Amino acid sequence: MASAALCVICLLLDVLATFMTALGLNNNDPAVKTRYYRIAVWVMTLALIAILVALILYPVFFVQELELGNRTLWEFGWAYGVGWGAAIFLFGAVVLLLCDQEEEEIYYKERTIIHAENDSRA
User: Fold this and answer.
1) What is the total count of domains within the chain?
2) Separation CA 38–CA 61 (nearest Å)
3) DSSP 72
4) What span is annotated as the signal peptide, if there is one (predicted)?
């Protein structure tokens, strides 16, 4: 039950982070865009931690339940592999969001400096 709750928390946090990223992409102000991106990165990181804890706790509790049962062979289902796939893709999303954030900040800083130089010459 704890693993399932952590997976649901991960899903909700991921939806929130996606919404924050969309707000950042929709905004033209670089400072506000950066704020939305940073919030999205932190929320996605929390979602990643939640799914990793769930994927680690599940086998631990599974082994404890295995000792109480009478079956000799138990296997994980396909959903456990999908969970690890989700964790890998979520980690990639966090890294790409960090890379994209820095690139846009550099672009806007360069653009602002160029405009400031042109105004001082005129």
Assistant:
1) 1
2) 35
3) S
4) 1-24
CA atoms within 13 A on the CB side of 58: 19
Q: Containing domain of residue 21, as a range?
A: 2-121
What does the alpha-carbon distance between residue 23 and residue 52 come to, in Å, rounded to a whole number? 27
Interhelix angle 78-121/30-68, rounded to 10 degrees, is: 170
Contact in structure between 50 and 79 (CB atoms under 8 Å): no
pTM score: 0.70
CA distance linking residue 41 with residue 46, whole number of Å? 9
Place of tokens 């919030």: 39
Give the pLDDT of the chain (122 residues) as one tens digit per residue.
Answer: 877 888 888 889 889 998 988 888 888 887 888 888 889 889 999 999 999 998 888 888 777 777 776 666 777 788 888 888 989 998 998 888 887 655 555 555 555 555 555 555 54
